[in-house]
Amino acid sequence: MPDSNQEPELLKTVLNKEGFRFTSQRQKILDLFQSAALGHHLNAEEIHQQLLDRGEKISFSTIYRALHVMVRLGLLQELELAEGRKYYELNTPFMEQHHHLVCVHCGAVQEFEDATMTQVGSSESALRGFSLLNCQFTVYGICPSCQSLLG
């Protein structure tokens, strides 16, 4: 990950190159992802609440626009994991392809790596003439905690 002193400059460079303005709101949203625990996914509501907790005043429309721009620029990755909600995670070049286990009861998400899944995505893409950009496999189920609660 880049040095924290270089991150605002890196974001500014990427945004300007693609014709977008650098704003403090975009930087603050990106900072949330960079400070989040590895494997933690955020949705717009969580981003809004975390920024409010830090004393930032930012509208949902600003958050959604910033997320859309950052996904388009490849800084964030958009995921649909549960409840039809969109979640986001930092799209870093050093992260391995990973997949998700999602509990349909509590919404818990666990990441896992499996080279077989990535190989299947790659070979299926090649077989059908696609150029593979990303391979994600999402498994929906009920986590052990919820299983014990549900009896």
Q: What can you see in these coordinates?
A:
The chain has 151 residues and is of the alpha+beta class. Helices cover 44% and strands 15% of the residues. The protein has 6 helices and 5 strands. A 3-stranded mixed beta sheet has the order 4-3-5, with no helix packed on it. The chain is flat, with a radius of gyration of 17 Å.
Q: Return the average pLDDT rounded to an integer.
A: 83
The fraction of residues in strands falls at 15-25%
Rg of Cα set: 17 Å
Which regions have little confidence, pLDDT < 50, spanning 5+ residues? Answer: 1-5
Strand order of the largest sheet: 4-3-5
Query: Total helix count?
Result: 6
The secondary-structure element order is HHHHEEEEHEH
Kindly state the percentage of residues in helix: 40-55%
Shape: flat
DSSP strand count = 5
Distance between the termini: 43 Å
Helices and strands: which structural class?
alpha+beta
Report the sheet with the most strands, covering strand number, pairing sense and barrel closure. 3 strands, mixed
